[in-house]
Amino acid sequence: MLAFQIRQTRDRYTWRTLAGDVSGGAVAALIAMPYGLSMAALMGLPPVLGLVTSVATAPVTALLGRNPVLIGGTASATVPFIAQAVRSQGSGGAAKVCLAASVFLLVFCFLRMGRFIQKIPQPVVTGFSCGVGAMMILSQLGMMMGLRAPVDRTSNNMLYQSWQVLAHVRDAQLSALMLSALVIVAALACTRFLPKAPAPLLGVLLAMGTAAIFGWHTREIGRLPLSVPPFAGFAWAPQDVFEVLPSALGLAFVSGVNLLITSRVVEHFRGRHRHLKRSDADSELGAYGLANIVAAIFAAPMSVGIPARSLASVRCGATTRLSNLFHAVFIIGFLAIGGPWIAHIPLPALAGVTAYIGICLLEWGTWRRLPKMSRVDALAFLTTALATLVVNAVMAVALGCVFYVLRYGAARVQGASHTAGTPYLPSRLTISK
Fold it and tell me: What is the pTM of this model?
């Protein structure tokens, strides 16, 4: 099956397809660098391990993953589990919990649990997409305004984090705000008038040129060293059964749900409203389980689907699984030979790219259809979108599905009461002689 897909992709691959995959991989790598570094540092790990996750897992997920344009990396949903392991056992603890979680993902694949997540109603997926879009915008407020405001990143409440940032709005830098706005406006205009062009990449280049012309000085990516991290050293102890495995099971569950929901959001963003096959969801869990075993060898964080990178890559024209490989290649290239150029990319410009993708995810069409939707669908959409900003992704999806469970239960009760209240009428009358 895989050989057939590779042969089919090769036969249809054109120079335009290659250009789209290359530009998509480049933009995804640009977004991955500051985000991956910050997520690994937040977990208490060396920042470069956040990039090792993307590089180490990309070949496996590109080869075995079912969604060709889904790009993985370090996500905020995994921070509490890995940070706790680092605090208790250092980087070896991170390796153990990620390795055990990877095995649990393979178990989920073997038990075919992924197909149950595929049954989540579409309004819940759409609400999650809208919530992720709003989260991507709010998470970049501080960077877009050039603020170094203290933010409680251990909290999943994005509204609370945004309030912490906005409390320091008087200290905002006008130049940073202008660069972010320039990227957003340029990308939206490019999408409107040049739909085939790599809008986010053009926005970043325009922001860099503007900053150089006017001499605006904002925070930049900076020089990043290229080095291969050593293998993680750890030893299993009997108490790890009670300390590591429960946390690893929670990490695997959160990662699996996040991964499959993100995959559906990416397919929805591409305009493909047909669900994946039931077996595809199971295979996706297996692919990321194997890929994360490779990352765990270096004590790198778990990799799950990242909406910002995946959707930015799609916006730039990526259509095949090679865009995932280019994403990893560009990260290595940026670290190895592109240091002087990459070091001067303004961070507000990259924040503008993330915010632009968030704007595209806000499901404007669904908001217009909201008055015409059924009450259950509307409540599920709104609840999931809001809960995504306040709690974690798993809880948000669960809250959205509650409305359908209640509707199903109410229908069963109503059906049972209707049956109980109906008088018995024999289907055939027999007259005895």
Answer: 0.72
